[in-house]
Recover the amino acids of this structure.
């Protein structure tokens, strides 16, 4: 058994009392607590800036795991949350309803394509995926198709850290290996990226369709699986396969939704309508935790009956939290008022231009950009923590994972800040 004293900040770095008294009592995400350096103490945020407690200021290159699409502390969202706080911070959604949730549901139904018009709220992306899976399974049971209980997922995919979401994520992802066995293994197949892969994909679907209820995939970009980009044709292929075999199509837009890939929802690039869509992350502009699982009419109607047992028996305690719904409505206001999709296109051009020098540097496998996502894929990254520290030393917050260095900035980031970010990536890669 190995024990150690938790790592302390270097003596020249001053930290506040709250940091000293609390740092030894938290368990951090995706972190080997015995070896990883301590986290940076943050005092406040604004726009694309992170203000550390020791006085340093960092330009944020990843918008808090892609959530803060309007930048931090946006005044319109803050005002909406403050107003809602005075009226009603929370009320249960069982037997009661409130204006922020119903307004948000109606707005999402109007924005999403086709008849995706029935919104089930929750409080995290992983839970939204679990609800989508539960919907799909009970959809089959309500129709008497009890043999169709498995899910078809794509290799390289990631759908969250809860049990069901892990089961439809790539089983080779190292962070999920300790949790294998929590849920039944699902069917994970190669995405149809080319003609040869398409033949294998069709064969796999053919073999498993009779026992499967749905295909689940991230549209256009597989995020935490390595920032793997797909063409719209892959989405069309998934929709066609689902239709051919009577499968539901679940699209996980938790990362891609709300403009990140260049359209409001990634599926719009392919003209595809999913049967169930999951949303979170940028839904509230990165302000409060909220998620939504949105179903098409035929899915919802399969739950309607005199028999109460056919109802969807699920209900997160904080689902449709009024504060979070107020933040989400304010975020949608900003999408209506501000030219965010034009901003995303401009960000994409700057990322393409700024990251291009990496293509000729040693150890770089690929450089790719889609919308407001810029990726430098390395052959390998031997020391992730060392690399992250190098970025902090250059005045930016960039958090590489696996073998990728990526940028997913706020859509409102200033041009000079974005250029500072791309320059830092080039310099760090060049320095080796």
């Amino acid at each position: 058994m190995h024990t150690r004293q938790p790592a302390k900040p270097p003596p020249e770095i001053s930290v506040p009392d709250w940091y000293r008294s609390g740092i030894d009592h938290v368990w951090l995400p995706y972190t080997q607590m015995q070896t990883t350096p301590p986290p940076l103490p943050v005092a406040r945020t604004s726009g694309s800036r992170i203000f550390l407690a020791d006085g340093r200021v960092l330009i944020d290159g990843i918008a808090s795991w892609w959530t803060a699409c309007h930048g931090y502390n946006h005044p319109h969202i803050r005002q909406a949350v403050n107003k809602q706080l005075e009226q009603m911070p929370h009320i249960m959604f069982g037997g009661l309803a409130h204006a922020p949730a119903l307004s948000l549901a109606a707005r999402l139904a109007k924005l999403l394509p086709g008849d995706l018009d029935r919104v089930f709220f929750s409080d995290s992306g992983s839970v939204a995926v679990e609800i989508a899976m539960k919907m799909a399974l009970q959809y089959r049971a309500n129709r008497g198709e009890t043999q169709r209980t498995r899910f078809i997922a794509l290799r390289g995919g990631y759908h969250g850290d809860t049990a069901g979401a892990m089961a439809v994520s790539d089983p080779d992802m190292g962070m999920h290996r300790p949790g294998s066995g929590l849920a039944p293994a699902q069917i994970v197949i190669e995405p149809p990226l080319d003609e040869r892969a398409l033949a294998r994909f069709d064969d796999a679907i053919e073999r498993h369709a009779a026992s499967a209820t749905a295909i689940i995939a991230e549209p256009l970009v597989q995020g935490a699986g390595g920032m793997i980009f797909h063409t719209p044709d892959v989405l069309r292929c998934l929709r066609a396969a689902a239709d051919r075999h009577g499968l539901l199509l679940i699209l996980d837009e938790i990362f891609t939704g709300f403009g990140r890939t260049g359209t409001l929802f990634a599926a719009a690039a392919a003209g595809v309508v999913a049967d169930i869509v999951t949303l979170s992350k940028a839904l509230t502009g990165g302000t409060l935790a909220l998620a939504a699982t949105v179903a098409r009419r035929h899915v919802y109607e399969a739950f309607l009956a005199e028999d109460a047992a056919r109802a969807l028996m699920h209900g997160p305690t904080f689902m449709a939290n009024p504060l979070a719904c107020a933040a989400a409505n304010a975020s949608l206001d900003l999408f209506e008022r501000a030219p965010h999709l034009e901003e995303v296109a401009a960000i994409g051009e700057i990322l393409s231009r700024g990251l291009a020098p990496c293509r000729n540097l040693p150890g770089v496998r690929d450089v790719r950009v889609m919308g407001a996502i810029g990726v430098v894929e390395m052959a390998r990254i031997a020391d992730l923590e060392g690399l992250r520290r190098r970025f902090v030393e250059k005045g930016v917050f960039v958090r590489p994972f696996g073998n990728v260095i990526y940028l997913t900035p706020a859509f409102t980031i200033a041009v000079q800040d974005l250029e500072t970010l791309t320059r830092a990536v080039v310099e760090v890669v060049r320095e080796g």
